[in-house]
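Batch manifest, entry 17 of 40.
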Amino acid sequence: MSTTETGKPIIYQNEKYQFSLTLPSSWKGHYKVEEVHWNPSADVVIDFNFTYQGEVLSTLFSIHILSEELDEEAPLTYIASNDEKTFAYTKALEIPEAFYENEQLKAEQDQFLHMMNQDVPQIIESMQFES
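Output type: structure tokens
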């Protein structure tokens, strides 16, 4: 993950589920993490949202934490399992409608696309679990 453009990477640490992720420093001021319960199959979902001027516009990716093995038909991508939990993720597949409706947001499209297509796969690969 390249951090030469803007400095040190951001370490996201989740104490409750004992994992960490490394986010590029370019994400500073452009994301918000929320623990939500929109997936009934998951114990919890951790959404990493794209923000513009402090407002959440779209989810970039979500970590789904499940108490059981991943269902083969679930639209989730497996990350890892430990003794108690299975970790999987989903990511945004398209640019949110807000980018087309707001002239000021058009300038943010490239950043959103880079975050979604280049950064998210590297962030998922950076996932580490505490032992």
